[in-house]
Specification:
The chain is of the alpha+beta class. Helix content is 47%, strand content 14%. Helix 6 packs parallel to helix 15, helix 20 packs antiparallel against helix 21 and helix 21 runs antiparallel to helix 22. It is globular, with a radius of gyration of 28 Å. It binds adenosine-5'-diphosphate (ADP) and magnesium ion.
Length: 692
């Protein structure tokens, strides 16, 4: 296989466009892509035609406007290229077909922005993300808006948030005498996932219906040996990964790194970073293809944040930075950050933004699945804080406390063996416990859940940093002595927002009380986190930066809460079904068998021991009874969940989830005591160790 030839072979990429489009059309389209110039509608027919010819040559018969509704998935409706031509057909894609579509979109969540009766929605081409051919269809990335102009998707606000940051960053750079055409946001999302055997998966109703195990006693072997992380790949897994890489490459996705993760059956894929909207599209496609490729290998890819209790869950690390079209990375500190006022100002603005808007940043990653992960041992707590590392941490400390800064020198490393190479040692160690860590020349936001779209947190990040930049520009524009004013402003921001910086162990027991003393938010559940969006200052920042209208912010928050409530409702119903229909009868059958054994043994001889049978039968009946009582309580509480997004989500978080924990506690105890032959489901051991 020739990787360079394979790469992007299914993509209508720059070189293809250049070859197939008339020169003027190509130039005009490039201007739109590179500089954000409005698309010249007169070129759309030519582009559409070239795109269609190319797609047909790749075996396509259909096209689709591919969009990202307010779920975590993408949506597509396929239209064929055929147009009647007498008795025959011709293949056609008009300019209008390329630019706009009108799916009947009444069944997508709109959070009340649109009544079902007024279902009109439009999709519009995003020329900055390349079209591609997949399974016989030309995929055209699009935004999705309502008849009245409200955005109904994740891409439109993402593009707006990119524009907002571009605009404000350019104003900021101008103060430093730097002119550029565009400041792009770059994102590299690292994706974690689990792989389980398809046959085993199919026997678990909870996995099939909810994506996670609602029951399951801990296996005898978890991740305590720490032998899975970076371990040698099993052949079946390696085959899957190779297949996945090749598939992703063919769609122009920069799949770069793959390895086993900490939990058994857990893995990770990291791409090379790219422009934010392309990174979001690629991540959506990556998640979809992971599932499809897994199926080919008799595996199921679990993207849920916490498929198994007791071992690590899966997240996404969102590496985020800003760079000019000239290649200047605004988060690159250089050799001597202390002498880099632009970097220091940008850093201070990011810190201020994260502190000011910690509530919505946390809310942007809130979901029923992620609630199980945040604050457990494997992920940052629900508290937002910023990690700067030794070098920058010391520099910021020196500014805040007006102390002399003594730079730490990078020392060459060696293992002390003459044959081994000398390698440079970083001035900053890694920190894996911070939710928002500076890592060399980018920030890494580590709170994201594995199955969620990465659009939401990036929309928030860009918006709040754009706001911080605009405030900086307003404060510094027209300053008599810019250098001095800039230094003073940077200092002021760092002092005001020093509380958000935490350079130590975020998983440690001391951090929560310390964060509380500092007045930082700690919203542990989605029900408590999402209402941050309803606050005045949150709505204002989106409106000011032109990313959302007030109505759009509220709609999105309501959808997040509604989704949370629905997810937990499905989980609770699944749990009730499994407990009542499978677990209770299975345990009962086993108890009956034990009782029969007791009777049989007694009939034969008084000397046959029945003690173990008696004790076990008694224990099992007691716990089985307790489980059914817990099921009854859960059922009753579910029935009484109030209407309305906020009250319903509160009851889900604080009544239903604890009820479910009680049902599970009983069932897991039963699993440990019940004979394997009677237990109705594959165990954690079966699920995590069946791929060999
Ligand atoms: P680390 O080892 O610190 O996690 P890596 O260099 O392995 O850093 O990068 C991790 C992820 O960060 C990769 O997806 C990479 O492409 C991405 N990344 C690197 N530089 C940037 C940047 N400037 N902007 C956004 N993402 C980046
Ligand atoms: Mg990382």
């Amino acid at each position: 296989m020739n990787v360079t030839e394979l790469f992007a072979s299914n993509v209508f990429h720059d070189e293809v466009m250049k070859n197939l489009l008339p020169k003027e059309v190509y130039k005009s389209l490039r201007k739109t892509i590179d500089e954000g110039k409005p698309l010249d509608n007169s070129i759309s027919s030519a582009v559409a035609n070239a795109m269609k010819d190319w797609a047909v040559s790749k075996g396509a018969t259909h096209y689709t406007h591919w969009f990202q509704p307010l779920t975590n998935l993408t949506a597509e409706k396929h239209d064929s290229f055929i147009e009647p031509d007498g008795d025959k057909v011709i293949l056609q894609l008009t300019g209008k077909n390329l630019i706009v579509g009108e799916p009947d979109a009444s069944s997508f969540p709109s959070g009340g922005t649109r009544a079902t009766a007024a279902a009109r929605g439009y999709t519009a081409w995003d020329p900055t993300s390349p079209a591609f051919v997949k399974e016989g269809t030309l995929y055209i990335p699009t935004v999705f808006v309502s008849y009245t102009g409200e955005t109904l998707d994740k891409k439109a606000p993402l593009l707006k948030a990119m524009t907002a940051l571009d605009l404000q960053a350019k104003r900021l750079l101008k103060l430093f005498g730097i002119e550029c055409r565009k400041v792009s946001t770059t994102v590299g999302p690292e994706q974690e996932y689990f792989l389980v055997d398809e046959e085993v998966f199919n026997q678990r109703k909870d996995l099939v219906l909810t994506g996670r195990t609602l029951f399951g006693a801990p296996p005898s072997r978890g991740q305590e040996l720490e032998d899975h992380y970076f371990g040698a790949l099993k052949t079946r897994i390696a085959d899957f990964m190779r297949d996945l890489d090749e598939t992703l490459w063919s769609y122009g996705i920069f799949a770069k790194t793959k390895h086993n993760e900490a939990a058994p059956a857990q893995h990770e894929l990291a791409p090379v970073f790219t422009t934010m909207n392309v990174a979001v599209d690629s991540n959506q496609l990556t998640m979809e293809l992971m599932k499809k490729v897994a199926k080919k290998h008799g595996l199921v890819c679990l993207l849920h944040e916490k498929p198994f209790e007791g071992v690590n869950g899966s997240g996404k690390h969102n590496n985020w930075s800003l760079s000019t079209d000239g290649g200047l990375n605004l988060l690159d500190p250089g050799e001597t950050p202390e002498n880099n006022p632009l970097f220091m100002l940008v850093l201070a603005c990011v810190i201020a933004a994260v502190d000011n808007y910690q509530g919505i940043l946390r809310a942007s990653v809130a979901s029923a699945g992620n609630d199980h992960r945040l604050g457990a041992d494997e992920a940052p707590p629900a508290i937002i804080s910023v990690y700067l590392g030794d070098q920058l941490g010391a520099l910021v400390d020196s500014i805040v406390y007006s102390r002399q800064y003594v730079p730490k020198k990078a020392v060459p490393g060696s293992i002390g063996v003459p044959e081994s190479p000398i390698f440079p040692i970083d001035t900053t160690d890694r920190n894996r416990t911070s939710p928002f860590a500076f890592t060399g020349n980018k920030f890494e936001f580590r709170m994201l859940g594995s199955q969620a779209s990465v659009a939401d947190p990036n929309i928030v990040l860009n918006t709040i940093v754009a706001q911080a930049f605009s405030e900086a520009v307003e404060a510094l524009e027209g300053a008599k002595d810019f250098t001095k004013a800039c230094k003073a402003y940077t200092e002021k921001l760092l002092k005001e927002h020093y509380r958000i910086i935490f350079n130590y162990n975020g998983y440690g027991p001391d951090w929560e009380p310390e964060a509380e003393r500092r007045g930082l938010l700690n919203n542990k559940t989605t029900a408590d986190a999402v209402p941050e969006f309803f606050k005045r200052e949150a709505i204002d920042v989106f409106v000011r930066q032109g990313v959302y209208t007030e109505k759009e912010v509220i709609a999105r928050a309501n959808i997040a809460l509604e989704n949370y409530t629905k997810t937990i409702n499905i989980e609770a119903l699944t749990m009730i079904e499994m407990a009542q229909k499978d677990i209770f009868p299975a345990v009962n059958a086993y108890v009956t068998e034990l009782c029969s054994a007791i009777v049989a043994k007694r009939a034969v001889s008084e000397k046959l021991a029945v003690n173990a049978d008696m004790v076990l039968a008694e224990k099992l009946s007691t716990v089985n009874d307790a489980m059914m009582a817990a099921v009854d309580k859960l059922e009753k509480d579910l029935f009484e969940v109030p209407a309305g997004e906020v009250p319903a989500s509160q009851v889900m978080a604080h009544v239903i989830v604890p009820d479910m924990e009680e049902v599970r506690r009983c069932a897991d105890k039963l699993e440990k005591l019940t004979a394997s032959s009677h237990w109705p489901y594959p165990t954690y051991t079966d699920l995590m160790y069946s791929v060999r």
